[in-house]
Every structure is written in structure tokens, then in C-alpha cells.
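Thread: quick sanity check before group meeting

JM: Hey all, I'm pulling together slides for Thursday and realized we never actually wrote out the predicted structure for the chain we discussed last week. Dropping the sequence here so it's in one place. If anyone has concerns about the input, flag it before I start.
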Amino acid sequence: MAMNKDLQKERMSATFNTETLTELLYHGREMMERRRYLHKIALGDKYLHSFKPWCNRDRNELYDIGIKTHVYIMKLKRDLELTDYREQFYFTEATGGTEANPLGVHEDMFIPTIEKQGTDEQKAKYLERAKQYKIIGTYAQTELGHGTFIRGLETTATYDDKTEEFIINSPTISSTKYWPGSLGKCSNHVVLMAQLYTKDKCHGVHAFIVQIRSEQDHTPLPGVTVGDIGNKLGYNAMDNGFLRFDNVRIPRANLLARYSKVEKDGTYIPSKNPRLAYGTMVLVRAFIVGLCSKGLAQACVIATRYSAVRRQTEIRPGGEEPQVIDYQTQQEKLFPLLASTYALYFTGDVMLMEYMRINADMEKGIFDEMAALHALAAGLKAFSAETTSNGVDKLRMSCGGHGYTHASGIPKIWAYVTPACTYEGENTVMYLQCARYLVKQYAQAASGQTLVGFMSYLNNPVKQRSSLNDSLNMVDLIDAYEHTAARLIKTIAERMQSLIEGGMSVEEARNLCGVPMVSAAKMHCQTYVVKQFSYIVNRLDIDRSVAGALETLCKMYAVYGINQRLGDFMQQCRLKTNKFRVDVTSRIQLKL
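JM (edit): ok, ran it. Output follows.
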């Protein structure tokens, strides 16, 4: 097929070697070539491309085809002996596209939770069967009445020391488990989050393994009511479900007991650190940052290519219709989101590495950085999901009417990424979780403690004026972000302290500071993203022409963020100039 001449022109004008940039994105030439090899296999597979387009399927077909294709994909991965998690992801991304995997929660949450929280005996009993899909599970946490507020979950697990069993019960309508993926049809087991009761005392939320369907005929077990919640805005290949228990008994051994356990007589032995139970959620939230960047990248590619090949309305009467990408108004829509894509991509990589590093420490009994990781993962999950959902929708509109059609692919991408704003923690609640940690860190810094890692910027002396000027030095840009974030955190910390000293409870004070807390958390997260992007740009092992293009994107990302929150920067940084704007009129020549 002949290449569109406008697209060819844009590609030929790149100022750097695009292969070199691709090697950077995929961690070297070897992995880049491996990814291409796996993509070629997936994209050339006749079975995977034998089904009718997703937009012509009804709900049942979406689920049925989703099951068939992902079972087939699992077999292919085993045949190809793909054990590296990156290789597995690269192969799946080429086969699954933006279709939800009905077995995804089994792979990403059920198995990791048992690996993380199970005893050696529990791992021996369940893990191999789960990995061979002899049992299929999900992670049943969210309830009809309680989502992100885990402490408020109402499902109960009451210990009966006479029979050495837990009695699982859904005491209210609002305690119905609601939303877990893979629950409506797929699963015959769940990791259940429930309030643990022994000797008439509640010990908080704990994880249990509970069988909900027969392994022979898949019918619900006695006392279990389970089903699919129906059609959704997107993700309709996923069987999100509901689940209720009516005094279902399970053995004492079904409490995931690596960190906390119940003795035969009902004596409760607590975990050294209750946050260990949330390890799986932190991992998933770390993954979400990278997944969001990929969704935004897909939409950016479509919208940028469209803008290069689409011509619209002559600028001068009788002249040639210019490419849409030559309009400044179109550049303002595309380029900052292109910069955001790279910023989130690199941050997602860092988040995953940070999780693995800190998780390795936790396995050794070192928990020093766990609270910091939990807070950062919560904030970045919300920040990346919000950026991506809003960004993909803006890119859809940048393609005019064509962006509204399923043929463009963008509506499907948006329906795939936007649930991230509410699953694994609703965004506002995630920001507030992050903000509570920031307030605690500020209090430590204010008392003279030296903070380590990324939070160390709270130890920096407060300046009266930022050094930021029109030269747009990255050091100055980062300084402006850190300065603004620190002052926003300081403001809410002092406001909360004032309310508490005036007789208000901590909870009431937090509620009255909720909006500025969210604002401070967003600024903290964007500061982190700017710093991670800048770190990549300044790596000495990167080709200088690639580094130059990335530096342009990094500065654009930072300055555009200032433009979006100019009031905060003007107030907190006291910028030297009364006017501060980003000029995106100079074209960034990237491979479209």
C-alpha cells in the first residue's frame, strides 16, 4: 500500500533515529526485537483474527469470545515458553488489544494475593491448581455500599471454635460484593475480604479463600448467591459480578495466614504491620500508571496521524488546504498530551521497579518505605487515570466527527481506560489517601526530621520567590513544582492544625480541607512525574538527539502543567513574570 505523502513527509523530517528511541522505550535492542517478534506472531495468528469486529458483538458474544481468545493466548504463551513478565505483556498487548480479559483478575490479583499472603501450606494447596486453571478465582473486596473505604466493609467472617470454622455472612444488602471482575461467570473461588470476628471481637478486614461454585458443574454452592451485574459503559467482555453469603462455613485453614492467624481456640495473632494485607492493591495501582500511558499513547498516535493526513480550510483564500497539524489550535490539543504520554510511560516503569524493590525489602522484614509506596501508588493511580481519561476524550474531539466513529478506534480506547478512574480506588479517595500521608510527612519535616527519598523536598527552605523565568531551565522548573507542592501541603497542614486546635475532630477537619488536600496531592504527583521524566532526559547513556527531543517534550509537559494551574504557581511561587505561557507552535518532529 502506498504511504500517504503527508504522513511520509512528517516521518522523513524526524530529527533523530526513531529506532534509538524505541530501544530506550523497551529497555534495549534485544527486548525491542523480541517484542516485535512476539507482535508479529500475534498479529499473524489466523484464529485470533477469525472473529467478527468487537463493535458488532452483543454482550454474550463479547464475553464468550473474550474467554476463547484468552484461553488460546495462554496456550500460545506456554508453547512459546514466555516466563518473563514483560514478554508475556508484550504478547498479550498485541492479541488482546483494548478488550478486557475475563480471566485477568484471576491472573493479576487472585494468584498474586495467595503468593503474597498465603502460608507455605496454602500456596501448596492452591497455587499450582490456580496456575493450571483447575480453579479460577477473583478478588472480592468492593461491596455495594463500600468501595475504597476498606475498613467499612460489612461482610463478616465469624469464628466458631467448636467446629474450627469461619461463618461467612452478608448481613445487609449493602454488604453484597459488587463489581469484582471474573466473578459473574468465571470464578469458582474468591479471595474474600471480610471483617474477622473471634471471641465476640472484630479484628478488622482479612483475606479468606472461599469456594463459591462447584468444580464439577460450576453451580453456586449452598448459601452462595452469585451472578453478573449486566451491561456497563465499557469493559463488557468482563463479567463483573455480585456475590452474597448466607452463613457459609469454611475451614479455619482458609484464612490467608502468612501475616496474621487464628488459633484453634479462637485466639487472634495479629500481623506486625496491617498494611501488608494491601500489597496486591499497591501492585495493581503501580501497573495502572503504565497501562494508562499506553492507552493515551494509542489515542495520540491515531489523532496525530489523522492531523497529518487530514487537510482542512485554506488559510489564505485560494491557497492550498493546510494539514490540520499545522494549525496552532490543533497543536495545543495534541502536543501536551503527547508529552504526557511519555511522562506517564517513564513514571510507570519507575513505579513498577520501586514496587519490586520495596516488596523485596518487605519480604526481608524491612517495612521502612511501605507507607510511602502505598501513598505514592494511590496518588499516581488517580493522576494517571484522570490524565488519560480526559486526554483520550480531548484527542477524540481533535479528530472531528471521525473521532466519534468506532472505525477510528478512539471511543473503544476511551471506554477501556476511563474505568481506571473508579476501579482499584475512586480517584478522589485515592488523592485524599495520598494527601493524608503528605500532611504527616510535612509534620515530621516541620519538627526537624530529615525526610528521605522523594519526600525530601519538604525539608527544603521556603523561598520568597521562584527563580523560574523564560529560559525554562529544567532545574528551575522542578524547583517551581517542588516549591508549589510544598507550600500547598504546608497550607492544608496548618489549616487542619488550626481547626483541630479550635476543637474540631481530625475527621471533621479533613473534610473541611478536602478540596485543597486533593489539589495538593495532584501537585505532588505531577511534581513526581516531572522529576522522573527529567531524570530520563538527563541519563548519560541516551543518544543526544533522542535526549534533545525528549527534553523538549519534558519541558512542554512541565510548562503546560504550570499553565493549567497558573493560579497556584503565581500564588505559591510568586513568579517573576506577570504572564507565563507555553508556546507550542514550533513543531516537535516525531515519528507519527
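AS: nice. The chain has four domains: 20-97, 108-271, 274-411, 427-450+469-573. The longest helix spans residues 328-363.
JM: adding both to the slides.
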